Structures are given as C-alpha cells and as structure tokens.
From TrEMBL:
Organism: Candidatus Marsarchaeota G2 archaeon ECH_B_SAG-G16
Top-level lineage group: Archaea
Pfam families the UniProt entry points to: Pab87_oct
Protein name, per record: Pab87 octamerisation domain-containing protein
Pab87 octamerisation domain residues: 34-119
Length: 126
C-alpha cells in the first residue's frame, strides 16, 4: 500500500513547472487587464463635446474600443469613425482626398483635439 501511494504521487519537479506556468499566466493576465483598464480610461477621456473657435462642434463617442466623431460645421454635419493612428493619441478620419489627422492632447489640464489645422477645446463630458 505504501509503495502504491509513492508511485501515484506527482513528482516535485512537475509541481514546480506547473506552478511557474500558473505564475506566468497570472502575471500575463494581470498585465493584460491593466492595459485594458488603461485603454478604457484613455478612450473615456477622449469622449465628450468639443468646440472650436470658429463655432464648429465635434462630438466624440465610444462604442467598445472604437471611437466615433460627429463634426458639425456651417456646411452641415458629418458622422464618421475615427481610425487608430501611430499611437494611442493619434487617429485619422478616412476621406476621399486623403486621411485627415486627429490628435488628442492636454493643454493646461484641459483636453483638446487638433483636427487637421482646427483646434477644438473640450466643453463637456458625455
């Protein structure tokens, strides 16, 4: 009986390797969840109503991990998706004449958006 229990017991080396695999998986998922939390907070900070000095309005909304923009100018309203650019803060609007760059940044603690050469200032959150 004692011999049989020794044979069925897992080897210590196997236990160690399983434990390190679990530690690796735990670290990886914890890191991934932190990145998703960071991305959630970043996208939430981009959402809101922005106004330019010329009177144009930009409304940025979020659906999942995608951003959508609604730009109202004196010529009308246009709704479009913001496609990701080079980094977390740069996006672009697809257009027939070429992609229009959109840059999110903070200035003096206020969120601002630069669309092509037009500067928008955040006036409210959604």
């Amino acid at each position: 009986m004692a011999l049989r229990s020794l044979q069925t017991r897992p080897q210590p080396r196997l236990l160690r390797s399983r434990f390190t695999r679990f530690q690796f998986f735990w670290k990886k998922t914890r890191k991934k969840s932190f990145l998703l939390f960071f991305l959630d907070e970043l996208l939430d900070s981009f959402c809101g109503v922005y106004e330019s000095f010329s009177g144009s309005t930009l409304v940025v909304r979020r659906s999942g991990y995608s951003l959508y923009a609604e730009i109202t100018t004196q010529f009308g309203t246009e709704r479009t998706a913001l496609l990701p650019g080079k980094d977390f803060y740069s996006y672009y609007i697809p257009s027939y004449s070429g992609n229009i760059p959109v840059e999110f940044f903070t200035e003096k603690g206020e969120m601002r958006v630069l669309v092509e050469r037009n500067l928008f200032k955040k006036i409210s959150n959604p």
